[in-house]
Write the structure tokens for this entry.
Amino acid sequence: MTKVMVITGSSQGIGAATALKAAAVGYDICVNYLSNEQAAFEVVDKIQKMGRSALAVRADVSDENDVVRLFAEVDKSLGKVDALVNNAGVLDQMMPVEKMSATRINRILTTNITSYFLCAREAIRRMSIANGGQGGAIVNVSSAAARLGSAHEYVDYAASKGAIDTMTIGLAKEVVANGIRVNAVRPGVIDTNIHEQSGDSNRVSKLKSQVPMQRGGTAEEVADAILWLLSDQASYSTGSFIDVTGGR
Ligand code: NAP
């Protein structure tokens, strides 16, 4: 039977790479996006050309009503979710904490933390054996920033990813008896458009000398780790982390 995967923020970057690789191994995919409709439709088109079903859903995953609607649309069009990748995330202009506004901090925290909780909640309600579900797997996309701290850049972002690490550990223990595994990947410097939000679109080439492998990573390299954690090959892994950082 075909499995169904929801990937938040999969119009581009790590989410889009994960969607294409997941479709190639047989998943039907919900491609969630916020603003980049054309890119989301292109990902859906590529998946459909692979012979799989795909659905683009615009939803702000930091908004509870949007998340509830997203999962209802997946129920209707693709069926019950088997796998969730909590991936949508944002950062903001580099600045010290002493200059950060509450508006900025709250946007980072609700987009990067609240959304992961809301999507996990909707997925668990459907996957949980106690609710008649079949179990499932969740992967949270955290960041190496959770342990590095991103001083002078975006400590708010790094702290949001620290929260995701703690969520991963707690939630994994909470839902293990219901047949659900919860793991995380912690990417390092990956070549995607997210760096434009920091005000430095050359960030990957600037930072590569600080990476033991002397290069940035690709979205596909992160997607491979996500897919392994979702797969049956990771059947004894829960509450665990894969760092995809080139050794940083
Ligand atoms: P990206 O290329 O900027 O893609 C971000 C995706 O998230 C886009 O599809 C965007 O949708 C979506 N999104 C943003 N806010 C959203 C919201 N409120 N609701 C729904 N979707 C939303 O970023 P990326 O580099 O692939 O990052 C993916 C994840 O990896 C993030 O959690 C990020 O923190 C993490 N990460 C990235 C790196 C890196 O170096 N790239 C390193 C460590 C961790 P639209 O395009 O439609 O607006």
Summary: The chain has one domain: 3-244.
